[in-house]
Amino acid sequence: MDLPRKVKLVEVGPRDGLQNEKETIPVEVKVELVDRLTAAGLPNIEAASFVSPKWVPQMATSTEVMARIARRPGTLYSALVPNMKGFEAALAARADEVVIFGAASEAFSNRNINCSIAESIARFADVARAAKDHGLRLRGSVSCSLGCPYQGEVEPSAVADVVRRMRDLGCDEIDIADTIGVGTAGQVRRLFDALATEFPLERLAGHFHDTYGQALANILAALEAGVSIFHSSVAGLGGCPYAKGATGNVATEDVLYLLRGLGIDTGVDLDAVVDAGQFISAHLGRKAASRAGNAMAARRAAAGTTLTP
Ligand code: HMG
Ligand code: MG
Q1: Which domain holds residue 243?
Q2: Is any ligand 1 atom within 6 A of the Cβ of residue 55?
Q3: Is residue 279 one of the residues assigned to a domain?
Q4: Which ligand ends up closest to the CA of 54?
Q5: Which protein residue's CA is at the shortest distance from atom 28 of ligand 1?
Q6: How far is the CA of 178 from the centre of ligand 1 (A)?
Q7: Taking 50 as the threshold, does the pLDDT of residue 242 lie above it?
Q8: Burial zone of 208 (CB within 10 Å; 0-12 exposed, 13-18 middle, 19+ buried)
Q9: Mean pLDDT estimate for the chain
């Protein structure tokens, strides 16, 4: 199959990336990060999550962040919501899209959202109805689609089952998430080929964490399967710096570099994303986890070119 000519990138750094940071990040830093990503042309930014602050303290300022970001018409600002309480908060914060997040593994569902897969779908049904009533876009995320930290292997049939249930709830888009970054290219290809019979391929997304260094290869495999929506995190944000081996999503800069080389259009300004990555990494006091981003920043430094303001 020919590769897609266009790809939609969903930037998840402000949510999936920052949610793992132990130190509280000031609202103004989060806002500046989102604003830089907006200015870079990212069409969809996952900017917030309305979950229990006891579970994920870093996301407790989501309402303030959503109130202060400079929204660009046409850019979608998404928020994770596990239940109606989260939905009400996302609605009040003017999220364009709400994301219900389930899992293909019972063990992970219980640990992440404290309920079984079946219970989660029942909760999501209320959210889905409310989203439709208010004209909000609805996205579903399926964690552990390529492996689970607790149960190990996950059967494609278990992923397909959750995809079907999310489809029946009316999801506009469904994310196939490799939460712990264990999947490999052949497995990714087979999974998307199987899922294409359950849900339109053009509305399935690849959400790959890069823990085992497979994410770019997995994106290429998914592109070859016809997938054209990918999630990525500026500077490769994510993972816990104190948990050995845990890493974030594939870096947006690296994905953009790959796609540019393939001649695939994203409408995103790679240089501006490199700046955003260097900005947040400087704030966090560590090097960006983006090979392409760091290489481009180093070249600029050698050439004496300053970062754009
Ligand atoms: P629970 O304890 O079963 O819920 O948690 P509950 O309904 O019994 O409520 C307990 C307390 O939480 C109550 O407060 C509620 O008000 C509060 P208390 O009375 O004790 O003071 N609460 C909330 N507060 C704010 N916003 C809410 C909310 N809901 C309840 N929406 C719950 C269930 C789902 C709430 C909890 O487990 C939770 O918040 N989990 C968060 C999970 C999370 O955010 N995980 C990270 C995101 S998922 C992810 O990263 C994966 C993804 O990237 C894809 C991939 O890579 O796999 C998407
Ligand atoms: Mg994730």
Answers
A1: 8-303
A2: yes
A3: yes
A4: 1
A5: 52
A6: 20
A7: no
A8: buried
A9: 95
